[in-house]
Amino acid sequence: MPLSQRMAPYPDHQTLFVLFRKGEPEQEVACKVSQAKGAGARRVMYYYQDYGGGGGGGKSGKTVQSRALSLRRILAMLLLSLLCVGTLFVAPVSFLSFVHTDDGGAEAAAATAARGGVSGPCSAVGNDSLCCDRSSERADICFARGDLRMHSASASFQLVSGNSTAEEERIRPYTRKWEANVMATIDEVRLRRVSPGDAARCDVRHDVPAVLFSTGGYTGNVYHEFNDGILPLFVTANHLRRRVVFVILEYHDWWITKYGDVVSLLSAFPPIDFTADRRVHCFPEVIAGLRIHGELTVDPAKTPEGKSIGDFRRLLDDAYRGRIEFLDRLERRTARKRHRRGTVPRAQLPPPRHTSHQDRPRLVIVSRTGSRVIENEADVAALAADVGFDVRVVRPDRTTELCKIYRELNASDAMVGVHGAAMTHFLFMRPGKVFIQVVPLGTDWAAGAYYGEPAARLGLRYVGYKILPEESSLSREYPTGDPVLTDPAGVAQRGWDVTKKVYLDRQNVRLDLARFREELVRAHQYLAAGRQRRPRASV
Q1: Which among 392, 441, 387 has a CA at the least distance from the CA of 418?
Q2: First CA to last CA distance, the chain
Q3: Which of 69, 307, 334, 420 would you label with 53, given CA atoms 20 to 30 Å apart?
Q4: Which domains are seen in the chain, by residue range?
């Protein structure tokens, strides 16, 4: 049983700390685990739960109120003063340099954010300024610097200014600007200049910028969650080094739970629910909207520090490393318990994941349900094993913890799956590995543009296995020679609704095992050659 439980003192965000004595059994909960250090140390397990009220918790959000100085604070200030005075006499130049350096502070962060690190519209936004870049076909982005106040009651950010010139910009901060239907579902936010007398009074002050974006639209589809949200968030905010507060429109608790590990590496502060949090949050800068570079990609030429999709991939590694190590330990501990009870032979105890089947490259089949199912999936798995792969089948659904999918694919050498949103998980694979996408009829362009080309940019060896008409379940519905089978491009000209109904919603695949075996053999040979080229680690 836990020794203690404590709730963090934030009014709308609660962090539950559960302390276990060293040696107590771990429990599988959605948590992060800090390593126990030293004899008798306690291990702290915690999870973050958001109640949708926003809040400016953390060191950035400071509630505007007077506080009496405690004795402990007074003593700490005296000690700090003595230390600073001593340092000033010993090394005055270094000390003054330190004092005037705002490493990652509001001014530096705001200036960097306003420029975006690249040339173009709004690349030089001064104080008491408002600028919107609407030059991209994919997304608008606005920058405001000065005294910014979030006023959710009027769906606006107020730029408090002595400048009497009326100025207002409107934005729907979502990255599918060209799709009018979905953009109409995104809330519109105003950025407007107001006089000090008309400004809302600050309830919470932040000394870091805010980034405003929406998790509405197509959120719920993993492809769009990464392409329209997580990757643009990385592009827009990564250079701020976590000195940023995320303000979210169409806020979803489940989105925070699903992507919290990643989001926490981009921001050190709790996110704010723009609609539900009625407090007035004040910022030195607001960035409304996100930059997007293309399909599942990061263009180094367009990022402030030359970051690439490989850097995003390393961010994912950092985000999930602790949780993966915990899951590995938990599985081994559970298996040992079962062995002691006599239910699992010692030979079947799982070794550390990195040592499993080192002589056989691991291949993961990402299974689908509903449409675009591999009808002979079991035969394909057996075929891959016969070729020489250690085969795993994963069946992700909406309830599957993202970290567990990441763990499987990060440790894999090859991934096989049918075109669809789940192919977004190629982002979880390490460069140099193999991604085989089964391309059903009528999906050639989308398969290449949305997954094939981005996978190649990540450094994967991409294989697009285009099925023949006889490998499609549509061959059992339409006669030989029907345009649905022979001319998918012509059928697609009838419109997206027809394409979706025929090729996406009603099509399964039954792979030609002899033909698909050729691709598996080539993939195995490629991976084997890579292992031979890789230098062995010294023992």
Answers
A1: 441
A2: 42
A3: 69
A4: 129-315 (no CATH), 362-533 (3.40.50)
